[in-house]
């Protein structure tokens, strides 16, 4: 709706082959009434770019894709565009385009991509020639102890517990489809974007378009949910190229639902864990090996891998730890950003493994975690920093307060199930996740502006986009609380990047911890400025004044702040750390032993937020995140067939939980009050989805005794595991029962 009236429309042309050289010719497409243009590889810029908005490092985010790809690397890769006056004409044009694909050898899974003599996933992968490793390895990292040190430590442990866990790729599941529009006016490119990172659009698009970033003006839009799908920059340059190709007229490019399902997915992962323990279960050494399926582009995979690697270490510290991570290219749908950014995959493996450790040593699962989890004042060994705020002990207390250890009806003991068909169980999983990007090499920061308008309202100027999570409402709450005024007297203005305070965007969980603290700092600066102006107006020293609401008071005198003239102040807040948070999920499930169906009846979701800013918004975040975690655990998948075609591209096919899901979600918020920053609060955006799958798997383990180590836990998989356990428990033929 935001695109200029009378705009043209652009329909993507995508590859039907997992790996192919593609040529596009108009054929009879331009004879269709309403046809305007057909664009392909020969019509687009020859400058490659990275869709990842967070880095220009060629190792982490190499320039690897083109506006229109001549070499298609996966089914659904963008190879061209038809431009028409309406969507009916665009669809008719697409059917007439001559799209020729010359197949190339393809690697359709991680094993095939890493096999000796494997075909190159990308023939034009210039970055691969510089790597001293398999060309299909997108990124690799090793942290912690050496391989020799970890082997030596495991060799002397009293007991070593091992496990391999797999998370299958899944959909990102944003409700509306991705879109962008562009128009050229007097040498300037105007862009309308649903990007989560609008400030990054100009510098990303400028090299591709061959213009200065200052010549690109972005109009960011309110988003109806993103979950990472809109964290990349690739439709914006495409729309700009299309507009320029048709003489500068506005062009709206919008992917179809099927195209969205084929363009991006959540990462698939396989994670191997080995933990050596003393005889009482205390970890003394841990080895973690993470393998991600990146799909056909590196994109976000290097950063997702680094985040997962970083979170593999701190939650349960051990003296000797080694983490190896690898992201592998395959000729399948690109794996992009998704809520949790690798934390969900890592938590599934780590918390399933921790459950097996507790069982191995005969310790209650919550008690085992209480003994060995990181506590406030402890050290994150990977980043070598002390963690000042980490309410893990309170998290354990809340799990027990909300029912851990209490009996559940089970089988014949349940009067509603006399046949014993249903088995019930309870499981837990802890979580840790960062809420800022600050590390040893980078400081996450945000700028905010507060101004006082003549109408007496306080206005917050921000570059942070609102995408359904309520961050603008949170900003209003922060200002209102610090000034002691009604939130209705606060207005938040979301400005375009060229006019907005500097802020990279809405992603991770940085909205409150980073941008919120910037808003708090700007509010305090506004109060300080009002004190100075009020003191001058009243003829007293600033130390004699105080601000009550928006009135400056001193020695029986008072002046309304709005009468003190226009007032506008800015502040920058630099995150001092990664804002590591603690939390846990407790799931109660019922397992139908006849069909393998798992019903999640209740989830208690506990989160260390430092200090709660807005309970209503926080509750919404938790309920939505838990539902996404249930989908990841039970139903969601985005698989490929034997020819590399994505199967579940339609929204209905992807198994997303709906409002009809019967699960009761109980949000619980704790905090030790020591979070750094002016607010004492930490982020909550990603945490609610993390750990849910592991808690459900552990609950099924409690109910039935079966170990589910591959997501999703479909009825077929559960029933097969139940059958296998029944066979294993049956006495051998000829055995004598005793």
In percent, how helical is the residue content? 25-40%
Provide the structure class.
Answer: alpha+beta
Number of helices: 15
Biggest sheet, in brief?
A: 7 strands, mixed
Task: State the end-to-end distance.
Answer: 75 Å
Radius of gyration: 28 Å
Can you characterise this structure?
- The protein has 738 residues and is α+β, with helices and mostly antiparallel strands.
- β28 and β29 (598-608) form a beta hairpin.
- α9 (365-372) runs antiparallel to α10.
- The model has no long low-confidence stretch (mean pLDDT 93).
Looking at this protein, list some descriptive labels.
31 strands, 26% strand, 738 residues, alpha+beta, 7-stranded mixed sheet
What's the short version?
The chain is of the alpha+beta class and 738 residues long. The protein is built from 15 helices and 31 strands.
């Amino acid at each position: 709706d935001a695109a200029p009236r009378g705009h043209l429309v652009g329909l993507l042309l995508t590859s039907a082959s997992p790996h192919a050289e593609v040529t596009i010719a108009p054929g009879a497409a331009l004879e269709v009434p309403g046809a305007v243009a057909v664009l392909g590889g020969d019509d687009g810029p020859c400058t490659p770019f990275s869709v990842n908005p967070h880095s220009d490092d060629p190792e982490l985010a190499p320039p690897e894709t083109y506006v229109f790809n001549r070499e298609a690397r996966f089914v659904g890769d963008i190879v061209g565009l038809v431009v028409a006056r309406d969507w009916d004409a665009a669809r008719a044009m697409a059917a007439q385009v001559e799209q020729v694909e010359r197949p190339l050898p393809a690697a359709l899974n991680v094993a095939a991509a890493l096999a000796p003599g494997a075909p190159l996933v990308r023939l034009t992968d210039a970055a691969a020639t510089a790597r001293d490793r398999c060309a299909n390895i997108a990124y690799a990292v090793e942290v912690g102890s050496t391989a020799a040190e970890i082997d030596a430590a495991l060799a002397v442990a009293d007991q070593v517990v091992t496990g391999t866990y797999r998370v299958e790729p899944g959909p990102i599941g944003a409700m509306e489809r991705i879109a962008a529009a562009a128009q050229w006016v007097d040498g300037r490119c105007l862009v309308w974007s649903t990007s989560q990172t609008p400030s990054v659009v100009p510098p990303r698009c400028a090299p591709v378009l061959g213009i200065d970033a200052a010549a690109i003006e972005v109009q960011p839009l309110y988003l109806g949910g993103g979950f990472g799908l809109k964290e990349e920059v690739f439709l914006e340059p495409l729309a700009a190229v299309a507009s320029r190709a048709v003489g500068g007229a506005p062009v709206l490019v919008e992917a179809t639902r099927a195209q969205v399902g084929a363009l991006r997915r959540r990462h698939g992962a396989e994670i191997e864990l080995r933990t050596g323990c003393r005889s009482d279960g205390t970890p003394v050494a841990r080895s973690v090996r993470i393998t991600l399926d990146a799909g056909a582009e590196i994109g976000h995979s290097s950063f997702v891998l680094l985040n997962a690697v970083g979170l593999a270490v701190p939650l349960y510290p051990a003296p000797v730890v080694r983490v190896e991570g690898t992201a592998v290219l395959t000729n399948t749908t690109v794996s992009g950003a998704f809520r949790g950014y690798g934390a969900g995959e890592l938590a599934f493996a780590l918390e399933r493994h921790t459950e097996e450790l507790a069982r191995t040593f005969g310790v209650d699962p919550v008690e085992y975690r209480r003994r060995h989890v990181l506590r406030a004042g402890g050290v994150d060994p990977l980043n070598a920093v002390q963690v000042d705020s980490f309410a893990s002990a309170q998290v354990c207390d809340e799990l027990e307060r909300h029912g851990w250890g209490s009996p559940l009806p089970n089988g014949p003991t349940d009067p509603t199930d006399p046949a014993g068909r249903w088995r019930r169980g309870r499981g837990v999983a802890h979580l840790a996740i960062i809420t800022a990007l600050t590390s040893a090499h980078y400081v996450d920061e945000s700028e905010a502006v507060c101004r006082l308008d003549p109408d007496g309202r306080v206005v917050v100027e921000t570059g942070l986009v609102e995408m359904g999570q309520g961050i603008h409402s949170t900003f209003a709450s922060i200002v209102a609380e610090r000034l002691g005024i009604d939130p209705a007297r606060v207005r938040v203005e979301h400005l375009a990047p060229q006019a907005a305070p500097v802020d990279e965007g809405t992603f991770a969980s940085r909205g409150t911890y980073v941008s919120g603290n910037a808003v708090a700092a700007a509010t305090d600066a506004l109060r300080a400025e009002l004190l100075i102006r009020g003191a001058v107006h009243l003829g007293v020293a600033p130390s004699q004044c105080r601000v009550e609401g928006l009135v400056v008071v001193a020695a029986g005198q008072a002046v309304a702040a709005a009468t003190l003239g226009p007032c506008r102040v800015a502040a920058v807040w630099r995150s001092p750390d990664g804002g590591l948070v603690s939390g846990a999920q407790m799931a109660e499930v019922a397992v139908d032993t006849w069909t393998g169906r798992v019903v999640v009846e209740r989830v208690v979701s506990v989160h260390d937020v430092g200090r709660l800013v807005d309970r209503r918004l926080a509750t919404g975040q938790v309920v939505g995140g838990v539902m996404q975690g249930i989908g990841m655990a039970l139903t969601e998948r985005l698989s490929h067939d034997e020819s590399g075609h994505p199967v579940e591209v339609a929204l209905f096919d992807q198994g997303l939980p709906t409002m009809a899901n019967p699960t009761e979600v109980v949000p619980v918020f704790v905090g030790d009050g020591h979070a750094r920053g002016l607010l004492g609060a930490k982020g909550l955006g990603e945490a609610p989805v993390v750990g849910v799958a592991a808690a459900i798997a552990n609950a099924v383990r409690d109910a039935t005794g079966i170990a589910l180590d591959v997501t999703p836990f479909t009825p077929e998989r559960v029933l097969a595991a139940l059958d296998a356990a029944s066979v294993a428990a049956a006495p051998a033929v000829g055995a004598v029962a005793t």
